[in-house]
Specification:
CATH class of the largest domain: Mainly Alpha
Distance between the termini: 48 Å
Shape: globular
CATH superfamily of the largest domain: UbiA prenyltransferase
Helix content: over 70%
Number of helices: 14
Number of domains: 2
Strand content: under 5%
Largest sheet: none
């Protein structure tokens, strides 16, 4: 059971906290009914993403054995059989989809689309240049949208844009670091890396970083958002976003991190503190009036 749990990558579940974004920004965070539905949605996304990880590791088992880090994953290392992984992924996926439709049809439909998109990514679309990183970003967007559908609230178009660009930023950085880390063996591990160069990815990072920062700043200063959230001071949080982006780029370009976004964030105290301060400030501005 331990290898199976490891293969489900619980350390990656932090990504699914985005499901709770709508709960926070709709000002329903401390209402039990909304909190329960949001928490269930978060758990279901954790499980469906784990099912996708299992399928992805089955598909990439040979390539993972060539990777200096991924070769230690349970399936690639031989500690978990392919058949056991396939059965577990099927059972988890079916149970999650059933539970998702019990919450609401739209939420269940998003879970289905997320699963299908990620399976298509694992088997083919990850080898299509630019589209591969866009699909990763769409996965984060679906998390945010699903969270809103689960508690039946609207989600701002500005928030959708910010989520998309920030997720794209992380995905592009990950591609760059894979090339840097794997060097001449990069293509052997992931064929799509042959279509990228560090210089091209640096240009993409610069564009997306600027876009993400500007879109978040405009979101916080939008008259529509100010009126809806009831506070004109959300733009204070722009400082935390600026620091977070610059700190992440510092870790990428001077410490050669960023290949595993989750580990990069969780192992960097300044980023964790900054994220905590951003969240605390947002909650204070929205809930203490």
């Amino acid at each position: 059971m331990v290898p199976l749990f490891q293969a489900m990558r619980p350390h990656q579940w932090i990504k699914n906290l985005l499901v709770l974004a709508a709960l926070v920004f709709s000002e329903h965070l401390f209402q039990p009914g909304y909190l329960l539905r949001g928490t269930i949605a978060f758990i279901l996304f954790c499980l469906i993403s784990s099912a996708v990880y299992l399928l992805n590791d089955i598909r990439d088992v040979e390539n993972d054995r060539l990777h200096p880090v991924k070769k230690n994953r349970p399936i690639a290392a031989g500690r978990l059989s392919v058949s056991t992984s396939a059965v577990a992924a099927t059972i988890i996926g079916a149970a999650v989809l059933w539970a998702g439709f019990q919450i609401s049809r739209p939420f269940g439909a998003v879970l289905v689309f997320y699963g299908v998109l990620n399976v298509a990514y694992s088997f083919h679309l990850k080898n299509v240049v630019i589209l591969d990183v866009l699909i990763i970003a769409v996965g984060f967007l679906l998390r945010a949208a699903a969270g809103a559908l689960a508690i039946e609230v609207e989600i701002s178009s500005w928030f959708i844009l910010c989520t998309m660009l920030l997720a794209l930023f992380v995905a592009i950085v990950k591609r760059r670091q894979e090339i840097i880390l794997l060097e001449d063996s990069a293509v052997d591990h992931r064929r799509i890396l042959n279509e990228y160069t560090p210089q091209f990815l640096d240009q993409m990072i610069a564009i997306v970083t600027a876009g993400a920062l500007v879109s978040y700043a405009l979101y916080t200063m939008s008259a529509e958002v100010t009126q809806k959230l009831g506070t004109p001071y959300l733009n204070i949080t722009v400082l935390f976003v600026i620091y977070g982006l610059l700190r992440y780029l510092y870790l990428v370009y001077t410490k050669n991190q960023g290949g595993d976004p989750t580990s990069t964030i969780l192992r960097d105290p300044p980023l964790l503190v900054n994220s905590g301060l951003w969240l605390a400030t947002v909650i204070a501005l929205l809930y203490i009036k």
